[in-house]
Amino acid sequence: MAHRKARERDMLDSVYSMLALVFILVACVELCDAATVVDVYRLIQYDISGVPFGSRLASLNHHAGSLHFSPGADLSRTVVMIPVRELNISFVTEYVSRKHPLGGMLFLLPEIFRLENGGGGKDVREKEVVKNVLLELEKLLVHAKLPYPVYFAFENDEIDAVLDDVKKNDATGQPATATTGGYKLVIPIAEPKKVASPTITNIQGWLQGLKADGDANQLPTIAIVASYDTFGAAPALSVGSDSNGSGVVALLEVARLFSLLYSNPKTRGRYNILFGLTSGGPYNYNGTHKWLRSFDQRLRESIDYAICLNSVGSWNNELWIHVSKPPENAYIKQIFEGFTNVAEELGFKVGLKHKKINISNPRVAWEHEQFSRLRVTAATLSELSAAPELLESTGGLLDSRHFVDETSFIRSVQLVAESLARHIYGYQGKNIQIFADNSSLAVNPSYIRSWLDLLSQTPRVAPFISKNDPFIMALKKELADHTDEVIMQHEVLDGMFTFYDSTKASLNIYQVASVTFDLLLLLVLGSYLIVLFSFLVITTRGLDDLISLFRRPPSRKVKTA
Amino acid sequence: MTVFHFFNCAILTFGPHAVYYSATPLSEYDTLGTSVKAALVYLGTALVKLVCLATFLKVSETDNFDPYQELLKALIGFIDVAGLYFALTQLTHRNISQNHKFQAVGLGGLVKTLNLKLQSHYLTSFSMLAGWAFADSVLHRLAPLWVGARGLEFTWDYLLQGLEANANLVLSISLAALGSLMWLRKNKPKTLIPIIYACAGIVATMPSITSYLRRGLGWQFPKVVGFELFTSLVMAFISWQLFSACQRPSA
Fold this sequence. Notes:
Chain A is built from 14 helices and 19 strands. With about 550 residues, chain A is of the alpha/beta class. In chain A, the strands form three sheets. Chain A has an eight-stranded mixed β-sheet with strand order 15-14-16-13-11-12-10-17, sandwiched between helices. Chain A has a seven-stranded mixed beta barrel with strand order 1-8-6-5-4-9-19. Chain B has nine helices and no strands. The radius of gyration of chain B is 19 Å and the shape is globular. At the A-B interface, strand 19 and helix 13 of A face helix 1 and helix 5 of B.
């Protein structure tokens, strides 16, 4: 008897240690078998001089809810799934301004905004409705501080099914919490960290003009500049096809046309042409500022004038030239007349807008203002009639491929190329078309289209592009093909802006049962096992044995007494 | 939620074995050794089955019911039966006398005969059966449960698997009872012999029947589990009746 008890004790000990090991293993729960996994893109998180903006959290682990919740419900542990199509902007405004506690927000964008879907003409009507909502939403989100995670996702069948289910559950009046089951949205991602020393890269290309023999002076230079980076609510989706992808493509096409002209010494003009692709555009044209400071005095003085391109891809019948020098200035008049003449021939209008620079104000609304601050004559050609505010019109959620209208864009390219060429070759006022259609110097639509397509699939928010990003290398190679000399300049973005990483993640959607379900199940199983136990005991040992199981303690007492 | 669910499914799957072990007179006679030996025999037969399956079956791309493959699988399933026979006849509880060894039988003893304190007869088969069924359950179901039931996602699959495990337990009890009737009982009434063999045949080929239902007829998992539960109860009842019928002459 004693031997058996000792052996039993040993066995029990080993069993306990095994159980302990099992519990330790069990503690690491796997999360990899979700019903649905979706790519999501996080709202931007940044600081301006220490003031925080955007969504401050990245990881998510809450239940899903929809907009049909009962008023007054506690949403601090719920992620609200909002399809942008049905969005009532006042709801978001209220929630953001009153700082209601919320587990998170997930905005569902219509499929047509996907990066891979270029130009879908059939859903234009739908886009119009969504356009205004998205514009307002983006402006609101970018300038607000949200202490919870905010993500964007594209609608697809699975998410739509989940949303329908969630709406049905919410309609019954029960918010989804741990005790009532439903869907759980999990994004397992580390806390977002600051991007240390975000780099901005300026690429410049130089086309040498024809120096006559015996000409000791430096040739005058004309500069064409466009900034290529973007900023938007979802940095992984900010492709900025119009702002400023159109500017970049226009610059590349003009470079290609002039390289054709300049390759032959007989047609080489007596001006140098400087092409500049700058970064840091949304941040008060920080890159342009650093680029200009890197010039030496002689080069700066030799610049006759600079044309900056900003959003020239989606206009109807009027472009604007923005200047900071007063319109009575002789140079400005000359430039403007040149552009107007060409525009008239092409069939549209060009207007002139003057905006004075305030040196003490750090806000730089147009790129030409950076030139003007260093006393270089410059103007910006744009479809925008008014100066954009800080972080506005910098390529947001709405600015995708189908936003650019190819016909008007080709006309802008023709305008720029033709005006520059007439100035360089001295044909102002004369009706000579250098880049005529159907000539070998015509603007090439397939070149434009392929570069626009590439730009529409590349998000280009500057702090998230490294120095050796393949896109920057592609731009450098393309400029090198068309110009004589390409120089890259790497700088660090000004300290006023701080950015945080984690722009893209995978969302796991789990269907979970509630805790009450588990408890109920435990109860059922317990009673089943007890019933089974008593059944077996009764049939094998008889009812007396079963009753004696419960009466053992008293009988022992009787024995000892 | 996840660990809780795993715990629930584990109880459902392995609980009945533990209950079976503790409720019947097994625990008083230290039959753990015999159970472990039976589990090892099961492991052996499983390995032999694996080797045969790997050698003779080809992997089918589609999910259709291929009669020849299923026939092969059923034949290999008979190795199961052979293993059970081996265990029943070879492994005995040491303390039972020679004559009791041949009277040891399976579950059929759920009758008043057990109240006649002939418990030692059944120790061998009970304990061996417990070991066999437990090993079967663990090898087949623990790994899927561990990997699957701990995830956040909730599906009914694991609970259904647990119910299937219960049905399998009852089925193997009936199989053991019928097996003992076939080989250990020397004096059987003549009329019942074909029924015994028929029932044993049905129970032994249960796996192929269920896979035919799942693939050939395309039944959903809950339906298949329901069918298994139903047939296991029916089989248990039939073997109980047969057992008591065979008991009567000797009692």
